[in-house]
Design brief:
5-stranded mixed sheet, about 45% helix, alpha+beta, 5-stranded antiparallel sheet, about 10% strand, nucleotide-binding, 33 helices, single chain, helicase
Length: about 850
């Protein structure tokens, strides 16, 4: 600023303070509080008004770190306005803690940036709504533990009683209560005089003050207080607020606290400590193994639901019984089964089919997913988990109406989940490579960054679930963030350091290198992060095999993951007997019949096994296939309600004579045809349970081929995450919004020449149509800007600053400073016009 320039006057309101900010500072405000830009304010006065609303202020306070929130709480108990020195004293105390003194400018800068505090260092003001929320009151005690000031506590006290307090405290009497209260406050705020007064206090009275000093500041007394309480009451060190209730005045508490507003200020975030360290190669390999297991688990789940999964409850979701069955099928616990089901749902791989008898099934996207490389499939699952707001850990809990929360059901969305997951992984990314953190240090860091409200532990629960789920997915390995996990969150690659030995490590402080939050990444950036993670994971996954080892006991051993066509065919032809490093398949008459039902001939099965076995096809397996094939389709079942036909009438006689067939309601219609009361599907199952191998046939007599993967839902989109408030605006939106706000502010604050045509309060000009037309035509000739009132087609009124270019046909074409573009306005919608004042006016 040049020596001729005068210093800017102190702002008198938040709107004036915002008006003094440059575009970068306003953009920072709108990024930190995106609710202020939804919708875009018309000018800075409206922006300031919106920034002071209760909902917006509560949202902003909830997103402050602990020390910044403590700073706001200290300002709420300071004078109005407060100086920086007063605030520093409340935070650092009389001794002046240098750590707090060094951290305070950053915290105050955050409050200013978010428009929670305005004014210079000599006149700091907390916005009124924030002061109301954070100031002490009997109904809402302050987190500082401080009570009301002497002036507030004595507001309803009689003048005579106030004069008694002044006299007992050793002060000169005054002529009015206001000066008496001022003298009493000055006494309690004076360190030397306060120390002298407390030196006279009995030890029992001092003990009472020590119990109240850090809050809560309220206590109960009887109608005849004890001597230790009477001494304090007589001197105003305790003041009555209601019958039987006393309070410790704020000035007294601050003197006893050595000036501190908080018992334990926390200027620095607690470090995230490493509980153990591993070699990075071990971490990545372990995570890759978990990633492969995750893919296999999701495939097994959806393969189990190929022909239609569990029914959808009337209220939505899986029943408890179906979740238990799914857990048994996956050989896992019910909470983990709920996680895998929700993960597949979040990735768009399963959904309800929408039929009358609604059931869950795989979606068409599942078939596309199966065709992708393994690393790409994992990246899709991990990306869906990272961005999902559905929280599987809540399954089995209760909602606000005490209803059980079910897997795939409503009520599982928690908008904070994506942010917490990303933040936990970012904290892991800040540790030395291969370091696994202790869960408690991660939770402590999250509590400092976002203090919980009223005992709300949801964020802590989500953080714990994140550590567990990331390990199951292969984002972490042995508790440490893997290379593919680091790429997934967009964190920079870690520098390779000297490998640490296996086992417990020293406590290592985190070096925080924040990555951009997941919700701030564009879809293209998220896709690029997923592709980068897949590239890092791909070399670590085992190569799929094209062969198995057939054994004489009717089993096949797959020594590793199989290629997709081989795995699919083997899954139809045999049953999985055990899993692990190698998968064991068991051939049974039922599994072979399943392959024949799918349209395979015996010769196809022999050729398939011979082509994919590293060992000769055992004779027992060849005999099994031939024996089942010889009997397959010998019986035919169709719809009558149902019927059975067979060229061998002796077989039908054998069925009729079997007591197990009694429930099928069979009767002979002809030597080779039996009719049944059971439906075709029930008849098929009944005959197979009796040891026969019937085949279903169509009305034309052709054998029906049963496909194992026949049932799919219609195309479905994955569930959309529930946003945690308005999204952070991008640069394009910010630029347009700032331009509109600045232009609108110019229109609302531009100086205008005095005119009798202004409306009430000077809000909109009001002139006749002839005056409006004449002023517009004159402005076209002189090139001057005008201030107009305008009502759009929806009836919305606004004020604008325009420079008319042309007036014709009932329209004015002008450069609109508010919109920063040339526009055309109908003259009949302009309420009035006024000239702008000269610059020197």
């Amino acid at each position: 600023m040049s020596t001729e320039e005068k210093p800017a006057a102190a702002p008198r309101s938040l709107a004036e303070a915002l008006r003094g900010r440059d575009d970068a500072a306003l953009a920072a405000l709108l990024r930190s509080r995106p609710d202020l830009i939804t919708p875009v304010p018309t000018d800075l006065t409206q922006l300031a008004t919106r920034a002071g609303t209760r909902a917006s202020v509560v949202r902003a306070l909830e997103r402050l770190d602990r020390f910044t929130l403590q700073t706001a709480q200290a300002l709420a108990v300071a004078g109005e306005p407060a100086s920086y020195e007063e605030l520093l004293g409340l935070m650092a105390g009389d001794d002046g803690d240098p750590v707090i003194a060094a951290a305070l400018p950053r915290a105050l800068g955050v409050l200013r940036e978010q428009a929670l505090v305005w004014g210079g260092d000599d006149r700091l003001r907390l916005v009124r709504t924030a002061r109301e929320l954070l100031s002490p009151s009997p109904q809402h005690p302050s987190p500082t533990g401080l009570g009301p000031t002497v002036r507030e506590a004595t507001a309803g006290m009689s003048p005579g009683r106030i004069q008694e307090l002044v006299a007992t405290a050793g002060l000169a009497s005054t002529h009015d209560s206001v000066s008496a209260v001022t003298a009493l406050s000055a006494l309690f705020s004076d360190p030397e005089r306060m120390s002298a007064l407390l030196d006279e206090a009995p030890a029992e009275s001092v003990a009472v003050l020590e119990r109240l000093v850090w809050g809560p500041p309220y206590g109960q007394v009887t109608a005849d207080p004890a001597a230790r309480l009477r001494w304090l009451l007589d001197r105003g060190l305790l003041l009555p607020t209601a019958p039987g209730t006393v309070v410790l005045p704020r000035e007294v508490a601050l003197r006893l606290r050595a000036g501190r507003a908080h018992r334990a200020p926390e200027p620095s975030p607690p470090p995230v400590e490493a509980a153990a360290t591993h070699r990075p190669q071990v971490v990545d390999a372990t995570a890759a193994g978990q990633a492969y297991t995750a893919l296999a688990t999701v495939e097994e789940l959806l393969k189990d639901w190929h022909e239609g999964g569990p029914a959808v409850l009337r209220a939505g979701g899986l029943s408890v019984r179906d979740l238990k069955r799914t857990a048994v099928a996956l050989d896992t616990s019910e909470p983990l089964a709920a996680f895998w089901v929700e993960l597949a749902y979040a990735a768009g791989l399963l959904a309800s089919d929408g039929e009358a008898d609604e059931r869950y099934a795989a979606t068409p996207a599942y078939d596309e997913w199966l065709e992708e490389p393994a690393a790409g499939r994992w990246a899709r699952l991990a990306g869906a988990w990272l961005a999902a707001t559905r929280t599987a850990g809540l399954v089995g809990g209760r909602d606000a109406k005490d209803r059980t929360l079910s897997a795939l059901g409503p009520g599982l969305d928690r908008s904070a989940a994506p942010e917490v997951r990303h933040r936990v992984l970012t904290l892991l990314a800040g540790l030395p490579e291969g370091a696994a953190p202790s869960a408690e240090s991660v939770l402590a860091r999250l509590r400092w960054e976002r203090p919980p409200r009223d005992g709300d532990a949801l964020r802590a629960r989500i953080a714990r679930w994140t550590l567990t789920e990331a390990e199951m997915l292969g984002v972490t390995g042995r508790g440490a963030l893997s290379a593919q996990g680091r790429a997934l969150i967009g964190a920079p690659p870690a520098r390779r350091t000297q490998a640490a030995p296996e086992g417990p490590g020293d406590k290592l402080p985190v070096h925080h290198r924040p990555a951009p939050p997941a919700h701030a990444l564009s879809p293209a950036e998220r896709g690029a992060a997923g592709a980068a993670a897949a590239r890092l994971l791909a070399p670590l996954l085992p190569e799929p095999l094209d062969h198995v080892l057939l054994q004489a006991d009717l089993t096949a051993v797959a020594p590793g993951p199989l290629e997709r066509p081989l795995a699919d065919m083997l899954g139809v032809l045999a049953d999985v007997e055990s899993k692990g490093g190698a998968t064991v398949y068991r051939f049974t008459p039922g599994s072979v019949r399943r392959a024949l039902d799918a349209g395979r001939a015996a010769s196809d099965l022999h050729a398939f096994l011979a082509a994919h076995s590293r060992t000769p096809v055992p004779q027992p397996l060849a005999y099994l296939i031939d024996d089942v094939a010889r009997r397959h389709g010998h019986l035919r079942v169709g719809a009558a309600s149902a019927y059975v036909r067979c060229d061998d009438d002796a077989v039908l006689s054998e069925i009729l004579a079997d007591r197990r067939a009694a429930g099928l309601g069979l009767r002979r219609l002809a030597p080779t045809v039996l009719a049944a009361r059971a439906d075709p599907a029930g008849l098929l199952e009944g005959l197979r349970a009796m040891g026969f191998a019937p085949a279903a046939e169509s009305a034309e007599g052709d054998v029906l081929i049963a496909r194992a993967d026949a049932h799919r839902t219609p195309p479905r989109t994955p569930p959309a995450p529930v946003p945690d408030g308005p999204p952070v605006p991008d640069d394009t939106l910010l630029t347009a919004a700032l331009r509109a706000i600045r232009a609108g502010d110019l229109a609302s604050t531009a100086p205008r020449k005095p005119s009798g045509g202004e409306g009430p309060g000077g809000e909109l000009p009001r002139t006749s149509a002839a005056e409006t037309l004449a002023t517009m035509q004159a402005a076209v000739l002189t090139g001057e800007a005008l201030w107009i009132g305008y009502v759009n087609a929806e009836g919305g009124a606004s004020q604008r600053v325009i420079a008319p270019v042309r007036v014709e046909g009932g329209f004015v074409t002008a450069y609109d400073h508010t919109a920063d573009e040339v526009r055309t306005y109908p003259l009949h919608r302009i309420t009035g016009v006024a000239e702008l004042a000269d610059d020197g006016g």
